[in-house]
Amino acid sequence: MTEVTDPQPALVDCVEARPPLSPERCDALTRDILRVKKQVNAVILAHNYQVAEIQDVADYVGDSLGLAQQAARTTADVIVFAGVHFMAETAKILNPNKIVVLPDKDAGCSLEESCPGPKLKELQETNPNFYTISYINCSAAVKALSDVICTSGNAVKIVNHSPKDRDLLFVPDENLGAWVMEQTGRKMHLWKGNCYAHMEFTHANVTRIRRLHPQAPLVAHPECTQAVRMLADVVCSTERMIDYCKKSPASAFIIVTEADMVHRLRKECPGKEFIRVALSNCACNECKFMKMNTLEKLYECMANLHPRVEMSPEIIARARLPIERMLEISARA
Ligand code: 13P
Ligand code: SF4
Known about the structure:
Blueprint: H1 23-40, E1 42-47, H2 52-57, E2 60-62, H3 64-73, E3 78-82, H4 85-94, E4 99-101, H5 110-113, H6 117-124, E5 130-135, H7 140-144, E6 148-150, H8 155-160, E7 167-171, H9 174-184, E8 188-190, H10 203-212, E9 218-220, H11 226-229, E10 234-235, H12 238-247, E11 252-256, H13 261-268, E12 273-276, H14 295-304, H15 313-331
Parallel strand pairs: 1-2, 1-3, 3-4, 5-6, 5-7, 7-8, 9-10, 9-11, 11-12
């Protein structure tokens, strides 16, 4: 039998390699953030992929669905969105009269980039029977052209509730779309977009880690390719990963998603081990867009109430309907 070794890849500007904020600087910024938060009556919403120090100061940390639900029900005057741009946009669409700020307005998403509104419109015009289901990782312009929105946490439910007599068009993630087709048995036309960060996981690098830790359940995000998903014990959204690892009797898990997911997992599942997949050039897998946010930028956006998310009232009105439809279907038993 060939012995499997685990060579440590070189660290290239990633979570492992970046110098951490000093504890003193981190504490001072955290204190300032909490002070400004009170002054302006803000709520801080953070995605599971944010750096640890942002997650630790947030009021709520979660997946895209949980964050949209929190945004829909907040009574705060200011929403501070520590995530990527489309997430802050969703919060603004649900709260047109509130101020929504984000640490870095250039924090985009490869899925959002892959699907420009005019291109989607062109495709929709080829088939009037299309029913467009858009993954929340898309622009407000794409949301405005959609019948319903979904997240990785509710995509199966949303597709199961879609009209049977319509041709389903799923945008922009072909991997999530393919996984949903497997789960629901519904055929869908898939837009050819993907998450560049999840595409870094391959059958080869995931198999290698699996051989090294044969007892550890493999937990993968549905943005991974089918070649990776087929190796997984469970495929789910980032929030369900927390739930699965909490409830599982296993003591170690292989986590096939963005690197900072393990921060919350370690916090909420003390005593359990979370293993990341080593890629070719680093020991972790970060989303470069999520990592544009830092604790300093979080403080600055709150202190200056800038940069703000702004959209035309027309786009807000049109994009709101499919988001509300998603929230309503999601709340059904
Ligand atoms: P969820 O956290 O909703 O599973 O989505 C992952 C993601 O890639 C967000 O950009
Ligand atoms: Fe987009 Fe992928 Fe980054 Fe999520 S992890 S924000 S899908 S690029």
